[in-house]
Write a structure and sequence with these properties.
Blueprint: E1 4-8, H1 16-30, E2 34-39, H2 44-50, E3 55-57, H3 80-112, E4 117-120, H4 128-137, E5 141-145, H5 153-159, E6 164-167, H6 170-178, E7 186-188, H7 202-212, E8 219-224, H8 233-244, E9 250-255, H9 269-276, E10 282-286, H10 292-297, E11 300-303, H11 313-320, E12 325-328, H12 333-336, E13 343-346, H13 351-363, H14 365-382, H15 385-408
Parallel strand pairs: 1-2, 1-4, 2-3, 4-5, 5-6, 6-7, 8-9, 8-11, 9-10, 11-12, 12-13
Helix pairs in contact: 1-2, 3-4, 8-9, 8-13, 11-14
């Protein structure tokens, strides 16, 4: 199998894509591979895992990314044609400003480090220079698609270039097919979690509750998300306010922070909480390198995205912890959560519907427990990271076998 692999991460910050990459790098090392990582921002945990000599800093080449909405949801003020024109213009600007020097830099590094395979971690348009560099270097490419692509001609062209594309959900796979990616090149592999890391028991719960200053009888509704507008902090707070105004036993726990290169939310979540009169009912933890204690402290986890979530790693992490999840019925969560069996789904963007689902779970603790146990079983069966990485490394072997067959012809 391929030995020296270059992984490229071009996300905004330390969210689900970065956590998934850390897990993938560990899996590659366990299989005897030598992974290298190129990133435009610091990930101390991943850098420590790799060592400085296997870390490529591409911060000087950071470019603007694409949209975070699926092709079927992306329309500019002037319609689909305008969206394509805007996407093409943005791509041209970035190509002139950043892509050419980044392509040259990566091509040189790929040769110097004897890279055998390039694996982009999150998207085609965001990794266009990396795709170009791999092509110029004559290297096979795996593109891990963790989000939606901007529906422009340039994205469609990129969709046909990688040898294989890994879609993190069926919704993402369908989006790629709409973009024109060949069906034989797109494989759906769900992201997974370390089942040993994400598990709850009474001892962990007690420790976590003490850490966050929570009483045992308090019902804790958690939101674990980076501070981006589409992640729905405002929606979560509106729903939580409706619940808190009816009962004193509920508290919110908000985990996460704003990525370095993202626009600040206006108003900020804390300002919104003050305006809604629930500032004293919420605990703000900021970013947690290990979100395990936050899950252990929660009774319910909310996934409040206002746009379709490509996958939603938080959802399956919470499920692995034995927690019911209340999520918008769109994108990946609509696949991972079984409504009424492992959690509850609500119409995306509807704060009143989210509040109603939360009120139901708060008032029925025994059913809440049954949902959580069913969620834990589903996570163990379908979202064990070891099973997911085994499928991914099968794709690596298939790619290598195809190269060997091509060389013999």
């Amino acid at each position: 199998m391929f030995n020296r692999i270059l992984y490229v991460e071009n996300g905004l910050g330390l969210g689900g894509a970065a956590r998934g990459l850390r897990s993938l790098v560990r899996a590659a090392r366990q299989r005897g591979c030598e992974p290298f990582v190129a990133m435009p921002y610091e990930d101390p945990e991943l850098k420590l895992l790799l060592g400085d000599d296997h870390w490529l800093d591409i911060a000087p080449f950071r470019r603007f990314g694409g949209s975070s909405q699926p092709a079927s949801h992306q329309v500019s003020l002037t319609g689909k044609l305008g969206g394509k024109l805007v996407g093409s213009a943005r791509h041209l600007l970035n190509t002139v400003a950043k892509d050419a020097p980044l392509t040259r830099f990566l091509q040189k590094e790929m040769k110097a480090r004897h890279i055998e395979l390039v694996h982009t971690n999150n998207g085609l348009l965001a990794n266009r220079a990396e795709i170009e560099a791999a092509g110029r270097a004559g290297l096979p490419l795996i593109a891990h698609q963790r989000g939606w692509e901007w529906p422009c001609a340039l994205s469609r062209n990129l969709a046909g270039q990688p040898g294989r594309i890994i879609a993190v959900s069926e919704a993402v796979r369908q989006d790629l097919l709409e973009m024109g990616a060949p069906s034989h090149s797109v494989t759906r592999i769900y992201d997974g979690v370390d089942l040993k890391q994400f598990r709850n028991n009474r001892e962990r719960r007690a420790t976590a509750r003490k850490r966050f200053g929570l009483e045992d009888q308090t019902v804790v509704i958690g939101l674990i998300a980076t501070h981006l507008a589409w992640k729905g902090h405002d929606l979560y707070l509106q729903a939580l306010a409706q619940v808190c105004h009816k009962t004193d036993s509920v508290r919110g726990l908000v985990v996460g922070s704003r990525p370095t290169h993202a626009e600040p939310l206006s108003p900020s979540p804390k300002e919104s909480a003050h305006q809604l009169g629930i500032a004293d009912r919420i605990i703000w933890s900021g970013h947690l390198p290990d979100p395990g204690p936050a899950y252990a402290a929660c009774d319910v986890v909310v996934h409040a995205s206002k746009q379709p979530e490509p996958f939603g790693l938080v959802v399956v992490e919470a499920m692995a912890c034995g927690l019911p999840v209340v999520a918008a019925e769109a994108g990946g969560p609509a696949e991972t959560v079984i409504h009424g069996e492992t959690g509850l789904l609500y119409p995306m963007g509807k704060a009143s519907a989210l509040a109603g689902a939360l009120e139901t779970l708060i008032s029925r603790p025994q059913w809440r427990g049954r949902l959580g146990e069913a969620a834990r079983r589903r996570a163990a069966e379908h979202f064990d990271e070891q099973k997911g990485w085994a499928l991914l490394f099968d794709v690596y072997q298939e790619t290598e076998a195809a190269l060997l067959r091509s060389a013999l012809c």
